[in-house]
């Protein structure tokens, strides 16, 4: 017989680069946790399920629980790559979690950043998505992925850098330090850029966003052109969600890079996040 | 013993949608031909090689030749999808052609369109590429493929339509008849658009270029916006190649759709093509 234990909950941040699991008491105090590999259910469904399961088991062991006990706890899982028509119930069953609520990674990020307040969250990393919570309802803009959306994201910025480098090579636009620097990385061979793009994933394109911000600092005209277009999109997306004076939280790998370039109208509204996405998952699990 | 025959040459237009082969006497008179399936060596190398071989054999039979005799004739093959760093010599060996010159499909199109004259050829179909022949030298702009290039192509126009439909759905830009018509095709479900794009090939995106031109006729603002950006690119590309009064030939599936929208500066230079890409391949084979 297993002795009765204090009630516990699990929060899971199933992100594209890593999976983080925390176990907390019902007063919110975290007692155990674990970190595992990528949880992107879109790019590798079976691998992601296996890695998430393994990380949950590790966190349970850290709390002195058997796997059976762990998988019976109330859980909230925020998953990368699930906003696009994924069957969330099936994911819960595959994971073996008995009492799980599965949401997007953006939703737990919003919960972590805003707590229970209303506000807007702009998540700008390899991809991009904009969420608003207002009077209990969550609306979102973007998050449609690399091919047709994710404007302002690292992947799109990087792709734009490569496209403009080829335009400069063709003499359609003026070459500058950014385009010359990228062409140099490919040994001055435009065919090498095209070959790279053929198999590149969004994260591969996003690596060039660093070059963009570096050259934008030196007022390179092409870098500024690409950056300004992205900032116009950020303004439009936040503007479409803004109803009055909702606070704005910037999250994601490019948040700090963008911040110095954002117009005062946006920066006035910016507040720091209250907590992480994992905090958000735990907070949601406590409400189950 | 096979009786000696009149000297013959083969021209092969290895296009992305079909492969066309013609056999001509050295005076240029075509005596036989055959048509087969897609010859895009990039998307399906083995299948393309097999289809081209089969079409060459058929054309040979049509001329009363054995396969051995056919594959020994001087041949010029213009291949789709080979401009991006492909090993052309290996393609010739795989095909079993003993005396073959292999060039891009764009080069035989230029030869067919201009004959031996100088001039500019804009090839705008699913992809796009711009070539200039001047004093025996051929230069090109574009043709870098869907992900990073092919501005003004059907695939890019179609992709832009879908991207802007999602922007309209998100309230970032105003919805109009074009975006509403596309959303309707996907049962008003933006997730269905994203799912389509995940597996869509350039040719699949290009199908939406028809919608674009249809709505551009009715002065739909979004259709005109996307179209104007493409036309600006066409002007820039032709402008970068234009040295004075070189004639311009418009080729490809979208040539006639674009023509009414091109500025007078461009249309003044337009001449009709002298012949087809297959004519070009034959003409080049005759020079071997």
From TrEMBL, chains A, B:
Coiled coil: none annotated. Keywords: Kinase, Transferase. InterPro entries: ATPase_BadF, ATPase_NBD, Euk-type_GlcNAc_Kinase. Pfam families: BcrAD_BadFG. Residues 10-257 form the ATPase BadF/BadG/BcrA/BcrD type domain. The keyword Transferase applies. It comes from the Bacteria. GO terms for molecular function: kinase activity. This is N-acetylglucosamine kinase.
